[in-house]
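Dear V.,

Thank you for sending over the compound details. I've combined the ligand you provided, zinc ion, with the protein sequence from our construct and run the structure prediction for the complex. I'm sharing the raw inputs here so there's no ambiguity about protonation or stereochemistry in the SMILES, which I know was a concern on your side last time.
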Amino acid sequence: MMSLTKLLLLVICGFVVWKLFAGDKRWKQSKEQEKKEDLVASGEMVKDPVCGAYVSKSNDIRVRQGDVVLNFCSYDCREKYLKRLEGQNSGQNGGGQA
Ligand SMILES: [Zn+2]
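Below is the predicted structure of the protein with zinc ion bound, written out as structure tokens.
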């Protein structure tokens, strides 16, 4: 009888600890997201237009388009963006799109 109560207590304790840990993790994640949004709002971080990742504005991988400077997380993303841009331009010259 005594061991069953102990076991039950152990399970409850484990559950509580797990709950606390899970809650803390979620809180940290939302806190991190807030931090990112703060940096975005203050203009220190910008969104990679290709994959949506947040990149620092001091990052070297960028493309200037008139007054706008776009930052990318990787050269891969920059290539993708430039290719897409080329596709748009040729589409305009070609005329009708389906
Ligand atoms: Zn990217």
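A first observation: Residues 2-41 form the longest helix (40 residues).

Warm regards,
I. M.
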